[in-house]
Write a sequence for this structure.
C-alpha cells in the first residue's frame, strides 16, 4: 500500500523512481480506508535527505500511511529553505489537538550539549509529554533516543573518548520481541555519535528492555515494557553513502575525524561503500508499523 504525501514534496519523484508506491493527498481522500497517521519530528539539519530516507521505509509495508512532518518552532533551521518548511511542515501548536497512530523523532547533531542547553528543549519536553496521551507508539532515533531515555526514564548520556563512527555488528539479546521478528542473530547498523548511554542503567530499569547491543558500539535497540517507546541509538535509516557524506563534511571543516569503522571496502575512502544493513532496516520499520502501531492503535481515537 502507498504512503500519502504532499503532491509537490521533492522526495515524491525520487520515491517514484525507486518504484515505491506514493499516493498524493487528492487521490488518498477518495479511498474508503482507515490509513495510519504518522507524524515525524524531523530534527536533522538536511531535512530533505531525512524525509526521503524515512518515507522510503514507511512506504514498504502493506499499510496505507499518511505522513505529517513537524519542525520545532523554537529553533530556526539553517540548512533548509523557509519555503520548504512553510509548505511541507507543521508545528506542535498546530497539531497538539490531534491524535496520531505513530510518531518518529529523529536524531539531531547537538549531542555535545546538555539536554537543558538545547534551545528547543522546553518544546521537546512538551512534545514528549504530549505523546503519552496522543500517540500510540513513538520511534526515537539516535539523539531522539537519548532524549527519550533522559526525559522519560532519567537515564543520561555520557561523552565518548572519540566518536563512535562506522558500521558495527550488533547481536540480539531478546529474540521474543515482535520488533525484531525476522532479524538475524547478528546484524549490521550504522552509528554516528560522540555520546552513549549506560548499559547498566538501562538493564537495571524495570521499565525497559534491551533488544540488541554491540561490544564496540554499546546498546542499540531498547523498548519500554509498555511498548510505548522504542529507542534506536544508531541510524538504520541511513543510505549507503550517508556516513561518507558526514566523513567528507567533517574533513572539509578541518575536524580530526577517523575513517568510519567497517564501512569503506578495504577501509579506503576512495572506494564506494555498500549498504549492509538495508534488510534489517526494512524489517524494523515494518515490524514497528505492524505490531506497535497498526495492531495497537484504536480504529477511532476518542
Amino acid at each position: 500500500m502507498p504512503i500519502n504525501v504532499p503532491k509537490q514534496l521533492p522526495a515524491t519523484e525520487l520515491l517514484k523512481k525507486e518504484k515505491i508506491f506514493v499516493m498524493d493527498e487528492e487521490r488518498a481522500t477518495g479511498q474508503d480506508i482507515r490509513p495510519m497517521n504518522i507524524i515525524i519530528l524531523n530534527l536533522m539539519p538536511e531535512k530533505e535527505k531525512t524525509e526521503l530516507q524515512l518515507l522510503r521505509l514507511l512506504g514498504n509495508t502493506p499499510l496505507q500511511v499518511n505522513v505529517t512532518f513537524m519542525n520545532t518552532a523554537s529553533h530556526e533551521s539553517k540548512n533548509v529553505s523557509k519555503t520548504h518548511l512553510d509548505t511541507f511542515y507543521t508545528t506542535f501548536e498546530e497539531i497538539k489537538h490531534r491524535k496520531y497512530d505513530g510518531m518518529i523523532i529523529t536524531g539531531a547533531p547537538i549531542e555535545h550539549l546538555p539536554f537543558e542547553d538545547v534551545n528547543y528543549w522546553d518544546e521537546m519536553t512538551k512534545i514528549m509529554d504530549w505523546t503519552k496521551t496522543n500517540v500510540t507508539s513513538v520511534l526515537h532515533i539516535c539523539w531522539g533516543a537519548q532524549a527519550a531515555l533522559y526525559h522519560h526514564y532519567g537515564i543520561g548520556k555520557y561523552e565518548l573518548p572519540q566518536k563512535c563512527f562506522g558500521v558495527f555488528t550488533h547481536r540480539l539479546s531478546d529474540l521474543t520481541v515482535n520488533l525484531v521478528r525476522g532479524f538475524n542473530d547478528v546484524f549490521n547498523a550504522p552509528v554516528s555519535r560522540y555520546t552513549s548511554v549506560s548499559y547498566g542503567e538501562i538493564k537495571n530499569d524495570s521499565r525497559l528492555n534491551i533488544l540488541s547491543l554491540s561490544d564496540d558500539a554499546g546498546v542499540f535497540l531498547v523498548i519500554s515494557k509498555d511498548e510505548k517507546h522504542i529507542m534506536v541509538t544508531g541510524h538504520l535509516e541511513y543510505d549507503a553513502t550517508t556516513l561518507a557524506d558526514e566523513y567528507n563534511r567533517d574533513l572539509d571543516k578541518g575536524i580530526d575525524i577517523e575513517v568510519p569503522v567497517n564501512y569503506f571496502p578495504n577501509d579506503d575512502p576512495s572506494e564506494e561503500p555498500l549498504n549492509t544493513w538495508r534488510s534489517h532496516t526494512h524489517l524494523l520499520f515494518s515490524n514497528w508499523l505492524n505490531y506497535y502501531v497498526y495492531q495497537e492503535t484504536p480504529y477511532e481515537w476518542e
Summary: The chain has ten helices and twelve strands. Residues 278-294 form the longest helix (17 residues). The chain has one domain: 3-294.
